[in-house]
Amino acid sequence: MTNAALLVYPDPPPPLLAQTLDLSGHPWKAVANASVAAAQEPADGWGGALIVADDDPEGAFSMCRSLRKRDGVLAPVLLLVTGAQLGELELREDLFDEFCLSPFHPKELEARLRHLLWRTGRGTHPEIVEYGDLVLNLETYQAALSGRPLDLTFMEYELLKFLATHPQKVFTREQLLSRVWGYEYYGGARTVDVHVRRLRAKLGEEHANLIQTVRSVGYRFGQTRTLH
Amino acid sequence: MQAQSDYVLRTVEERGVRFVRLWFTDVLGFLKSFEVTPAEIEVALEEGMTFDGSAIEGYSRVQESDMLLMPDASTFEIVPWHDEDAPTARIFCDVHHITTEPFDGDPRFVLKRNLERARERGFTFYAGPEMEFFYFQNAHEPEPLDQAGFFDLTHGDSVSNLRKNTILNLEAMGIPVEYSHHELGPSQHEIDLRYTDALTMADNVMTFRHIVRKVAHDLGVHATFMPKPLGGEFGSGMHTHLSLFEGDVNAFHDPGDEYGLSKVGKHFIAGLLMHAREITAVTNQWVNSYKRLSHRYEAPVYVCWARNNRSALVRVPLHKKGKKSSTRIEFRSPDPACNPYLAFSVILAAGLKGVEEGYDLAPEATNNIFELTPEERAAEGIAALPQSLGEAIDVMEGSDLVAEALGEHVFGYFIRNKRDEWAEYRTQVTPWEIDRYLGSL
Predict the structure, then answer these.
(1) How many A-B residue pairs are in contact by the CB < 8 A criterion?
(2) What is the four-CA torsion angle of A212, A218, A220, A223, rounded to 10 degrees?
(3) DSSP assignment, residue A140?
(4) Please, what is the end-to-end C-alpha distance for chain A in angstroms?
(5) Do A188 and B124 touch (CB under 8 A)?
(6) Which of B133, B183, B236, B436 could disulfide-link to B188, CB 3.0 to 4.6 Å?
(7) Where in chain B is the domain with CATH 3.10.20.70?
(8) CB-based contact, B368 to chain A, within 8 Å
(9) Residue B118 has pLDDT above 80, yes or no
(10) Residues contacting A66, CB < 8 A, separation 6+
(11) For residues B355 and A184, which has the higher predicted lDDT (pLDDT)?
(12) Domain of A104: which CATH number?
């Protein structure tokens, strides 16, 4: 199963786009221009591209053009445009493989992306995430530890999924709040602490340290390397 | 919302859940449960489940008895105490009119409304209660399981199993526990719940009381949150730690202040003190509640605040150096038999009123407050909490703040119901009166 990162333009992308990609489990990286895109390209190539034209259509179209021109055409390209920009797509049909109206509905974007990746043979959605004794089935929303099912609430599950799909990476509370709960969520970063505590309680004493507190920064998922 | 409903439906299917219990709370704080099968849960999530509201204490009048339970999908959890072959889940519900409007008499809605008011001012309200309760041999006689202090009995099988099973069940339901120990009375226990936002905490208190009673029942004993089950012993309180956050900033904290308290913190305390007498009927809602409120047993009696005086109504605990997020205040009058949704509502309303109006905070109480004569206390402007349910209801009835916080429906029902309770109690002749008067008068 390939699971190459999606290129996302611009940097930073609109928060709702970042959140939608995270919740749907697609790895991604935002780039500011074509040279960053080349420099940051993963070893096995980009899995596709999502280009947002909303605020800067010129920049977006030139980004598309450079992706098409380079050696090894980058595909598929999904373009996000506003209703007012639809006219500008004329004579630019070669620059993208699919488009989606912005503001977008997260479910629609997710469906278009999934379909596009499937059509181009890049179906990338991981169904099973494993980390040590922990197994998450993203298809059925179930989590299990050493074969024992974990009884989680929806947000506990979403937080665990996000952390387990980004092991060893340190996230601040604000990052977790914006990626897992969404920017509009009101309640402050204490919400994250509260949910981490709930998750640790459910993971049980033996596995509570799967989610580590990084002092004065935030949280990291996974065993520290020194333990191995 | 859609993703949350999908999560519920998928989990019900994957885990073979046989029953989903829809939980809600009546005005007096009793947990109500309505069981649906997996086939019904999808419709329940989308459209709600119809039920007869006239059967519920403090809900609708008979002519408008059809009501809707709207499950809050974010609270869906599989309960740890189900039978092996019949996995069971529970989900908290909001109560709506059949027209889908939220119902004013639903305590969960009352709390949401008050939290929304705090949110409009940029505040999130956090609460962390210390739950005290007793274990007795049965529900008819307050016969303790032991007469000993903490260390004597931890080796006994029954008590350590009670404690172990209770804590395991709480943690499995995602309710982290701070610590537990034997309290001062015989067979008395305390379990502290780690702070969380007030709505989740009110749900947690409901779940907590259910788990404690259920575990006790399964081991053949009775757990009670009755505020004062034993004359001459300590009662059970629900000291509640409170804080307001503005985003990530603890709005009660000011490093430059001698108490570590910000202006918001001080105004909040001043609000609590100013309106303490008005909200007591809600935080201490039973005839029996007022038997706990005696300074001989470290329960608050006078409306004052202090850092170290454990008999003060509001205590400002010392926080760990550098832990500014832990600045909080402890409100010590509530008891664990309150309705947590309504209690948190009136506590928040009183504190916020202080913040909005910029009430001045009186000086910290001196330690000898109980040694003052009533005249001296009056001179210092220190009021006493109501001494009976009757007095508390009288004070509450005149309170615009409580009427606004609870809404007219709950406010009116509560006063009628509690007046009836008080009137009935007043006609009782107690064993104490027989002992004291029958022979001599």
Answers:
(1) 76
(2) -30
(3) T
(4) 27
(5) yes
(6) B183
(7) 2-103
(8) no
(9) yes
(10) A34, A37
(11) B355
(12) 3.40.50.2300
Which of B197, B211, B250, B324 best tests the A interface by mutation, with the highest count of A CBs <10 A?
A: B197
Statement to judge: residues A164 and A105 lie in one domain: no
Nearest to B332 by CA among B236, B188, B264, B233: B236
Nearest CA in chain B to A185: B247
Q: Is the peptide bond before A12 cis (omega within 30 degrees of 0)?
A: yes
**At what angle are helices B263-283 and B400-426 packed, to 10 degrees?**
30
Are A111 and A147 contained in the same domain? no
Range of the domain at A177: 132-223
What whole-number distance in Å separates Cα of residue B378 and Cα of residue B384? 10
* CATH numeric code, B2-103: 3.10.20.70
Q: Which CATH class is domain B112-432?
A: alpha beta
Nearest alpha-carbon partner for B148 in B184, B192, B191: B184
Asked if residue A127 is part of any domain, the answer here is no
Please check whether residues A55 and A84 belong to one and the same domain: yes
pLDDT above 70: residue B152:
no
Q: Distance, in angstroms, between A6 CA and closest chain B CA?
A: 23
pLDDT digits (tens, 9 = 90+) for B95-113: 999 998 999 999 999 999 9
User: Do A154 and B119 make contact, defined as CB atoms within 8 angstroms?
Assistant: no
**CATH 3.30.590.10 domain range(s) in chain B:** 112-432
Please work out, in degrees rounded to the nearest 5, the angle formed at the alpha carbon of residue B6 by the alpha carbons of A190 and B40: 120
- Give the dihedral of Cα atoms B111, B116, B122, B124; nearest 10 deg: 30
Q: What is the DSSP secondary structure assignment for residue A82, as one 8-state letter? A: E
Comparing CB atoms, the residue among A141, A151, A199 nearest residue B172 is A151
More confident residue, B336 or B82: B336
pLDDT at B155 over 50: no
A93 vs B49: which has the higher pLDDT: B49
- Nearest-CA distance A92 → chain B (Å): 36
Please indicate, yes or no, if residue A30 is contained in any of the structural domains. Answer: yes
Helix/strand/coil for A198: helix
pLDDT band at A217 (very low <50, low <70, confident <90, very high): confident
Is pLDDT at B376 greater than 60 in this prediction? Answer: yes
Q: Is B383 on the interface with A (CB under 8 A)?
A: no
Among B243, B255, B228, B207, which Cα is nearest to B80's? Answer: B207
Burial B342-362 (b: 16+ CB within 10 A, else e): bbbbbbbbbbbbbbeeebebb
Which one of A69, A94, A119 terminates a domain?
Answer: A119
Of the candidates A42, A189, A15, the one whose C-alpha atom is nearest the C-alpha of residue A106 is A15
What pLDDT was estimated at residue B65? 82
CATH code for the domain of A216? 1.10.10.10
